[in-house]
Amino acid sequence: MRLGRGTVTRTATLYAGAAGLLLIGAFPFFWMLSTSLKPPGEIFATPTLVPHRATLDNFVQLFRETNFAVYFWNSILVSFTTVVLTLVVSALGAYSLTRFRFRGRETVAGLILMTYMFAPIMIIIPFYILVRQLGIVNTHLALVLSYTTFCLPFCLWLLRAFFLSVPLELEEAALVDGAGRPRAVWHVVLPLSLPGLIAAGIFTFILAWNDFLFALVLITSDELKTLPVGVNDLFNATIVDWGMIMAAGVMITVPTIGFFAGVQRYLIQGWGAGGVKG
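^ thats the sequence. predicted structure below, dont judge the formating
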């Protein structure tokens, strides 16, 4: 089939625009990777896109002279714990809002969504006072609870849209066959809502992995810091080592890109379907 000139022009424009966006988005990461592979003398010389003599000394120095490995492990621990807790609570909440009828159900759902409109900076002080009264300041538990609080409204509404799309007859058939409600949810509802669960998990992981504000306020011990705060301390040195900072940036970004690339099709499917169903 022969394409018309208008179609070819429109397609070429779209590809050119996509290539431009890709270049703009990828260039900072490319520059960060290039700088991390340069020796100190080359970083402050005339800038070049590709290092003349690539070296891994900045990465070796990062792990040898700082607690980067500890920060990395703390971020993984806090992020995945937050993902698990958020998915469990939001799935239970979304299921109750879709399967059980009670007075004020829609109002409760609306109020939950409204809490998502508050910026973190607005509640950081009240939240700090609360966790201090609970005696969990300077613990990973405080970080997990804070991240769960912010992710819960979005994840609950996303899963609510997915649970509404699951035919009630399928769940009733499982109940008639002798399965209890927990078993029906586990074997019928959750598998059919898997794209939504994965999308909610990715959203939660990215927020917990990148957060700086709550980690800075709630954590004071160096051995409990997460990556954003730990790497920020590198700027407080007498001599700022840009090669080591760029190496840290690469090490922080690579796991996120890998995780996102592995499950991005579920993210697109989940957010797209959630938007339509909601």
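The CA atoms of residues 194 and 244 lie 39 Å apart.
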